[in-house]
Amino acid sequence: QRLYALIPAAGVGSRSGAQGPKQYQRVAGRRVIDHTVAAFLAVPAIAGVGVVVAPGDTQYHAADERIRVWHVGGETRAHSVFNGLLALSGAGARAQDWVLVHDAARCLIRPADIERLIDACRDEPVGGLLALPLPDTLKQATGQQAPPRVQATVERGDKWLAQTPQMFRWQVLYQALAARQASGFQGVTDESSAVEALGERPLLVVGSSRNFKVTYPEDFAMAQALLMHADA
Ligand code: CTP
Ligand code: MG
Question: Can you list the domains of the chain with their CATH numbers?
Answer without folding.
Answer: 3-128+164-200+209-228 (3.90.550.10)
